[in-house]
Design goal:
Layout (H helix, E strand, L loop, with lengths): L12 H16 L12 E6 L5 H12 L3 E5 L12 H11 L2 E5 L3 H10 L4 E3 L7 H15 L6 E5 L4 H12 L3 E5 L8 H14 L2 E5 L2 H5 L4 E4 L11 H7 L7 H4 L7 E4 L11 H4 L6 H20 L4
Parallel strand pairs: 1-2, 1-3, 3-4, 5-6, 5-8, 6-7, 8-9
Helix pairs in contact: 1-5, 1-12, 2-12, 3-4, 5-6, 5-12, 6-7
The structure holds phosphoric acid mono(formamide)ester and norvaline (NVA).
Length: 307
């Protein structure tokens, strides 16, 4: 198992399976893991806002017998010029793990390269692997299996699209990304996801045709049109993403049994219609809950004694 949790693509399908199995056990029997990270401390660096990531990690480490320390954008010295490397080295003398939410993905890589304790990626501009581990857990719970399922992401080729490409490909799924022109996922990520899919029996489909992307999907996913840090582009993106809203008509192109997922926070009336996110196919709050279980599994494996 890799020492850090930076990208799903650093893992084998068997390692992701091990995380999913442990996340399931943790959810079924939380009391059995009360001591799993006893006395351990997790530093939680946030360069951006968060509801789910912050609360699920802080609650999760507490439930495992440890404690979290929230380090917001102006709490530490990074914004005053202290280097990532020095921050990682100092934190490693105090704590047992570092979770970080950053802008540039290189910051996560630099933290990991300089820390002697495990580093967990709590979202970068490139990837959001903790979210997708929880998403895989949710899809498996709801549909009973992952391999062979079609998972369609509609919207911006962003951090969510990238981690879904990796996570779906690793688990042998067909991942379709339907994106507006000019907002394709990173070609390097797509190539790597295709290589993974070639080994797992999965497939990757990238299209600007939303109907083709959503056709016969088992799971339909979307995310905000302007991510954190892209606020200045919001208006322009609203115009360029017209036609990419997941509404009831689009869900009707997927399988009748299809589920709808969204990492949240959501903007009803933009990337998703209220009738879908608040409708019977939506599993978004189960997804949010599974952040807790999936991340407890990550912390148990990387920071716990017995694992
Ligand atoms: N989905 C997610 O990561 O939510 P937050 O930004 O609230 O942590
Ligand atoms: N793409 C979004 C995901 C939020 C969880 C963002 O980066 O803001």
């Amino acid at each position: 198992m890799p020492r850090h949790f930076l990208s799903l693509a650093d893992h084998s399908p068997e390692q992701i399976r091990a995380y999913l199995d442990l996340a399931r056990q943790v959810k079924l029997n939380p009391a059995g893991f009360r001591e799993a990270c006893r006395g351990r401390t997790l530093a939680m660096i946030f360069q951006k806002p968060s509801l789910r990531t912050r609360v699920s990690f802080e609650t999760g480490i507490f439930q495992l017998g440890g404690q979290g320390i929230y380090l917001g954008p102006t709490d530490i010295q990074l914004h005053r010029g202290e280097t990532i490397a020095d921050t990682a080295k100092v934190l490693s003398r105090f704590v047992d793990g570092i979770m970080a939410r950053v802008f540039g993905h290189q910051d996560i890589l630099d933290l990991a390269a300089n820390a002697s304790v495990p580093v967990i990626n709590g979202l970068s501009d490139l990837l959001h692997p903790c979210q997708v581990l929880a998403d895989l857990q949710t899809i498996e719970e709801k549909l009973g299996s992952l391999a062979g399922r079609k998972w369609t992401y509609v919207g911006d080729g962003n951090n969510m699209a990238h981690s879904i490409l990796y996570g779906g490909a690793l688990m042998g799924m067909t991942v379709a990304v339907a994106h507006p022109r000019g907002y394709a996922p990173d070609p390097e990520v797509v190539t790597r996801a295709r290589d993974i899919a070639a080994r797992t029996g999965g497939a990757v489909q990238i299209t600007e045709d939303i109907a083709e992307g959503v056709a016969d999907a088992d799971a339909v996913y979307t995310d905000v049109w302007a991510s954190m840090g892209q606020e200045a582009e919001h208006k322009e993106r609203l115009a360029r993403f017209q036609g990419f809203q997941v509404d009831a008509a689009m869900m009707a192109r997927a399988l009748p049994s299809a589920i709808f997922l969204h990492c949240l926070p959501a903007h009803r009336g933009e990337e998703v219609a209220a009738e879908v996110i608040d409708g019977p196919q939506s599993v978004v709050f189960d997804q949010a809950e599974n952040r807790l279980h999936a991340q407890k599994a990550i912390m148990i494996k990387l920071m716990g004694d017995r694992w």
